[in-house]
Amino acid sequence: MNLNKILYRTITTSKSASKKVTTNDLSSKKLKHSSQQWLSRQMSDPYVDKAKMLHYRCRSAFKLIEIDDKYKFLKPGDTVVDCGAAPGSWTQVAVNKVNADAADSKLKVGKVFSIDKQQIFPINGAAILGNMDFTQTASQEELRKALNGSKINAVISDMAPSATGIGQMDKENIIHLCYSVLRFAVLLSDIDAAVLVKLWQCGETKKLETDIGKFYRNVKIVKPNASRADSAEIFILGRNFKGLKVS
Ligand SMILES: C[S@@+](CC[C@H](N)C(=O)[O-])C[C@H]1O[C@@H](n2cnc3c(N)ncnc32)[C@H](O)[C@@H]1O
């Protein structure tokens, strides 16, 4: 073998042995690590098993169950709008609480309208508006049409924007979603209605709480046990909507 060939072999072999780690490799490694973390967290999470057992589409169901068990703002016969509803566990809970599927013939029958950017597979008792961005005027117009004049008793939002990886930007985006829910709720709610929004604790939390308090008599920040302690996730619940004064 001539010298050139030997040199070529040495260079190519050593190159592959000390292969540079690219940004892609790093992010896929990071991804593998976070997927592993997610998997082990899921496996040791009692709410995941409970959700499977009770046929909820995801563990988030227990956040709404806990909040409503404590504050009792969802009643049989109520009209509820569920924003960011996919895959559908909050809708399942809401249908049950307001008797939207008429499961109990002795109770008033409520209505649940569920909207999400993603597809939502049908849920008995709920009107589904899938593949719709709640923040768009056209989507809210669709919701208004579906409501067909019914005043809302509760707007619940578990909406979360897709993570950008930039914490501050994600927090601003979720606050934007909360205000969009608040504006919609204020325009279409019945007196004494409730609004529930999810956000990630941030500098804007206090302002949002104050703004909700301008329209709802009782405002509470809630962190249910089912919400992971290491997550910045909190909920703001406004109850007893004051109504809009039309001058
Ligand atoms: C945490 S998940 C909701 C889980 C749901 N509450 C449940 O229990 O099954 C957040 C959802 O918000 C939706 N979302 C985010 N931004 C949205 C928007 N602008 N309009 C409608 N849905 C949105 C996402 O598509 C996602 O399905």
TrEMBL record:
<keyword id="KW-0496">Mitochondrion</keyword>
<keyword id="KW-0808">Transferase</keyword>
<dbReference type="InterPro" id="IPR015507">
    <property type="entry name" value="rRNA-MeTfrase_E"/>
</dbReference>
<keyword id="KW-0489">Methyltransferase</keyword>
<dbReference type="GO" id="GO:0005759">
    <property type="term" value="C:mitochondrial matrix"/>
</dbReference>
<protein>
    <recommendedName>
        <fullName>rRNA methyltransferase 2, mitochondrial</fullName>
    </recommendedName>
</protein>
<dbReference type="GO" id="GO:1902775">
    <property type="term" value="P:mitochondrial large ribosomal subunit assembly"/>
</dbReference>
<feature type="domain" description="Ribosomal RNA methyltransferase FtsJ">
    <location>
        <begin position="56"/>
        <end position="241"/>
    </location>
</feature>
<dbReference type="InterPro" id="IPR050082">
    <property type="entry name" value="RNA_methyltr_RlmE"/>
</dbReference>
<keyword id="KW-0809">Transit peptide</keyword>
<keyword id="KW-0949">S-adenosyl-L-methionine</keyword>
<dbReference type="InterPro" id="IPR002877">
    <property type="entry name" value="RNA_MeTrfase_FtsJ_dom"/>
</dbReference>
<keyword id="KW-0698">rRNA processing</keyword>
<dbReference type="GO" id="GO:0008650">
    <property type="term" value="F:rRNA (uridine-2'-O-)-methyltransferase activity"/>
</dbReference>
<feature type="active site" description="Proton acceptor">
    <location>
        <position position="198"/>
    </location>
</feature>
<comment type="similarity">
    <text>Belongs to the class I-like SAM-binding methyltransferase superfamily. RNA methyltransferase RlmE family.</text>
</comment>
<dbReference type="InterPro" id="IPR029063">
    <property type="entry name" value="SAM-dependent_MTases_sf"/>
</dbReference>
<dbReference type="Pfam" id="PF01728">
    <property type="entry name" value="FtsJ"/>
</dbReference>
